[in-house]
Amino acid sequence: MANFFKKLAGVNNESIDVDVNNEQKETNNKSVTDKTDEEWINNNYEEGQLSVDVYQTANNLMVQSTIAGVKPEDIDISINNDMLTIRGKRKMDATVKEEDYLYQECYWGNFSRSIILPVEVKAEEIEASLDNGVLTITLPKAKSARQISIKVREK
Fold it and tell me: Can you tell me the distance from the alpha carbon of 152 to that of 155, in angstroms, rounded to the nearest whole number?
């Protein structure tokens, strides 16, 4: 069933992973993707949705998100076709009994967000940084394809 949705969405198993240390690598994410799909389908995989700001400059698409309390090694950023996906995990260090909470509004655990990119980007030049709990992803825009006019002639 997961493969049906991948084909429907035009997703292949080749993706480019970007980490916040600006190291990139091409991977075959079949086993990771299949595991995530199975967990999602079985409802055993609860994720919070990450809030993001997406804007553009003349040369870049910019994605920003506040993810305080998350270490760079706990963030996975990947791009597959025209979809940017940010996944991570916010770990709670202290163990507090459920009955001791007066308010519990912070989300702890796995989170993710997928964003369809409105323009083509240069995947090999994507940069990500984490500064004071704000994740910033810079996606350089690719030169837009030149429009070519084709004349139809009658035979």
Answer: 10
Each residue of 98-131: pLDDT tens digit?
888 898 887 788 999 999 999 999 989 999 999 9
Task: Provide CB contacts within 8 A for 1, sequence distance 6+.
Answer: 37, 41
Three-state DSSP state, 125:
helix
Give 130-146 pLDDT, tens digit per residue: 999 999 999 999 986 55
Query: How many Å apart are CA 53 and CA 114, to the nearest integer?
Result: 12
**Which comes out higher in pLDDT, residue 10 or 88?**
88
Pairing of strands 14-18, 109-116: unpaired
Widest pairwise Cα distance in the chain: 83
φ, ψ (nearest 5 deg) of residue 20: -70, -5
Which residue type is seen at 138?
Answer: T
Distance CA 76, CA 63 (A): 14
